[in-house]
Specification:
By secondary structure, the chain is an alpha/beta fold. It is built from nine helices and 18 strands. It starts with a strand and ends in a 32-residue tail after the last helix. The structure holds glycine.
Length: 442
């Protein structure tokens, strides 16, 4: 019998973190993904950048990002101790270089905003910028230093999480979830899956999720079906399929998270060794670019941001622009060996904040929409979703309730505190409808 306490759809870093933390609490977990780690978890650059990725989104998301960044050192150390695999967590800080006087003025505004939020950052003169990163082009007018924005090697992180869940006894199924099984009220509530694990609190708690409560009558999600025709049953199903989270049949449209694919391309270069010490970011003539130096001399350059539906083909223009802008900031990059272009889809949400929490149907938890912060938010998403399933309070997740957009649709003003509402018709449709893959990240 394919039965467990928890099913996680999607084995990117988000799904794996959830599976790992749930299994550590004694829950039996099945994680299902046709190609674990092949999605945005592989394309990401691994920046842990709550400060320099902040785009005037607001305090709730900043608080979530900062808290996850705070948890990162222990998360990485625990993974390393358990698996013997180093995920390349590096306290390197981030330099944001201004391209011209107008860009410097914009950075000053960002810095002032950061100060109102009590975020640690400081403005740099031109001289300070060059002394922090001597490889930067001469003549840049100044910049901003974010000493707490670090990095992890997202691919090593994914490998370490895979090893951790395997070690914890999580069942990993290489298949595509095509459908969610819903049934009437009979199976709702706490389900004894017959495993040795503890009971899980699968029911919607009307006190903490007023919008979610019984929005779909007595229906309850009780498992999934894969493309191989296999059924898997669990008390709780976690939808962590990143940009592909809407491509699964069986759920009412209002329950599907309003996630949309935002294409990102990154490039991987090798050497020159020791060229950069910190993550370097810039806005060259209005084009955002970042360069993430790994300790082994590799460099990750990113990233395009394209509204191109589910098209993951690399685009020559994006490769050209990234190389041009990166080499404008750091001229010696032109001498590096070109290794790879990688393309995937970030799961964007209508307000750029993730959707993490109970869905408006019993038995389903959503953990997607991490947009540009999937790698950063893995520790906190894993911890908090495991707490939620165990029935513990998760106040930090309250602003990220997946039902906030449904609430906005129903309200007379048409707006929620979280952001603007969208309709399903406005979202790109996955042509395969059944594809799911990894959650996305920075
Ligand atoms: N967080 C970096 C990106 O999404 O490109």
């Amino acid at each position: 019998m394919n039965s467990s306490d928890v099913i996680v759809i999607g084995a990117g870093v988000i799904g794996l973190s959830i599976a790992w933390r749930c299994s550590q609490r004694g829950m039996s977990v099945t994680i299902i993904d046709p190609t674990p780690g092949a999605g945005a978890s592989a394309t990401a650059a691994g920046m842990l950048a709550p400060v320099t990725e902040l785009h005037f989104e607001g305090r709730d998301l900043l608080a979530l990002n900062l808290e996850s960044a705070t948890r990162y050192p222990a998360f990485a150390a625990e993974l390393a101790e358990l698996t013997g695999l180093d995920a390349g967590f590096r306290r390197c800080g981030t330099v944001q270089a201004a391209w011209d006087a107008a860009d410097l003025a914009a950075l000053r505004q960002v810095h002032s905003f950061q100060q109102t939020l009590q975020v640690t950052s400081q403005m740099l003169t031109s001289r300070e910028l060059r002394s922090l990163e001597p490889a930067l082009a001469a003549g840049l007018p100044g910049g901003l230093w974010a000493e707490d924005d670090h990095q992890i090697d997202n691919r090593l992180l994914h490998a370490a999480l895979m090893a951790a869940v395997a070690k914890a006894g999580v069942r990993i199924v290489a298949a595509r979830v095509t459908e969610v099984i819903t049934s009437g009220g009979a199976e709702s509530g706490i389900v004894d899956s017959g495993s040795a694990g503890p009971e899980v609190a699968a029911t919607v708690d009307a006190a903490t999720a007023p919008v979610a409560s019984r929005a779909h009558g007595d229906a309850v999600v009780s498992g999934v079906v894969t493309d191989g025709g296999e059924s898997y049953r669990a008390a709780v199903t976690v939808l962590a399929a990143g940009a592909w989270s809407r491509g699964i049949a069986g759920l009412p449209d209002a329950v599907l998270p309003p996630v949309r694919p935002v294409k990102g391309q990154t490039l991987r270069l090798r050497g020159p060794q020791g060229l950069l010490t910190h993550v370097v970011r810039g806005n060259v003539k209005g084009n955002a670019v970042y360069i993430v130096p790994r300790s082994d001399g590799n460099l990750v350059i990113g990233a395009s941001s394209e509204e191109a539906g589910f098209d993951v083909r690399p685009r020559a223009g994006a490769v050209y622009e990234l190389l041009r802008d990166a080499a404008t900031l750091v001229p010696e990059l032109s001498e590096a060996e070109f290794v790879e272009v990688s393309t995937s889809l970030r799961p964007g949400s209508p307000d750029n904040a993730p959707m993490i929490g109970r869905a408006a149907i019993d038995g389903l938890i959503v953990a997607t929409g991490h947009f540009r912060n999937g790698i950063l938010l893995s520790p906190i998403t894993g911890d908090e979703v495991a707490r939620l399933i165990a029935g513990e309070p998760t106040p930090i997740l309250a602003p990220f309730n997946p039902s906030r957009f449904a609430r906005a649709r129903r309200s007379t003003t048409g707006r929620s505190s979280g952001g603007s509402a969208v309709t399903a018709a406005e979202l790109p449709q996955d042509p395969r409808k059944i594809e799911q893959s990894a959650e996305v990240g920075a």
